[in-house]
Amino acid sequence: MSLFSRLFSKSTDDYLSKGDRLFESGRFFDARSVYEQGLESCGTGNRETVEQFAAKIAAANTSLAALNIEEAEAALQHGNGAKAAEHLELAKTLTNDPALREKAENLLSFIREETAISPKPEAGGGCSSCSSSSCHDAAPDSAHDHPDMSPEDYYDLLIRQLPEENYERYATLGEKFACMYLAVSQDEHHAALKMLEEWYQGSHSDIYSYEKGMILYRLGRVDDAEACLRESIGHNRDNPLPYQGLALLLIDAGRLDEAAGHLDHMAANDILPIQALMLRGEVSLLSGDSQGAIDRFAKLLTTPVAKPAAEKLYAALMQCGRQQEAARVFKQYLGGCCH
Q1: What are the Cα distances from residue 60, in Å, to 34, 238, 320?
Q2: Fewer CB atoms near the end CB (10 Å): N or C, the chain?
């Protein structure tokens, strides 16, 4: 499992809020990992809670399925039907969404007709170091998690969740870095830290410090993690990832005033502004500033995260006893949803 999987709080709300923050930031794989830990922690006693976590996991899987379809379309544009088919087969296993499954099947049918490849091609040759014994020792279960994907393609899927400029950089960092990233995704943080140190040769210092900070955070070394994240920002103020990582760390540590100031700085400087505003609304809620949260979630109703923002806006309005406003939000943005 991946981002923030070593959680120190055990309450259902903590698991849900952490997962939601990651989901809203586009980190669907990491969000799913948190939801899965929350489901494991609650056992089978509370049916409503179990169903809530199951729905969150399904939503994360659906978003991952959509990413796989995007990857397949990109592969087709480059004439790589075999790779596209791998992504489409994986997308079908991740979701029961009729529209996505139909799209995946239609694309598979097109590939079969045009290239005459089999519906379940063998995984292509991944990066050599990711196929080596050392990499498999670091991430022993990776092949079982996604048997239809090579390590190279699985790494590409993971980094597709990053902002575009970060994806382009991460795609060129080499095999050793990719293996480290896969180790992190398998919750093998000690091995990943060792691999990161072996990979680092002095370039891409902001990425090195950011990834080291996130690994250290997962290992419970919060002070060291914070220092690395701030160091990463110092290396490259145009890299949005350490800003986001620091915001999540401050929120998780309950340092809400610092988190609020940091997120306001992100929004004012156009650093992941949509994600920053969503997290700022979360901080307002945690601080007891319901109106501030309502105002911020309302601003997001015209953005690509309109639905999750509307869900939070609806809940905040209901908590404040503003049922009529909540009903309008529900009708306009959440019609057909169950809450």
Answers
A1: 11, 28, 29
A2: C
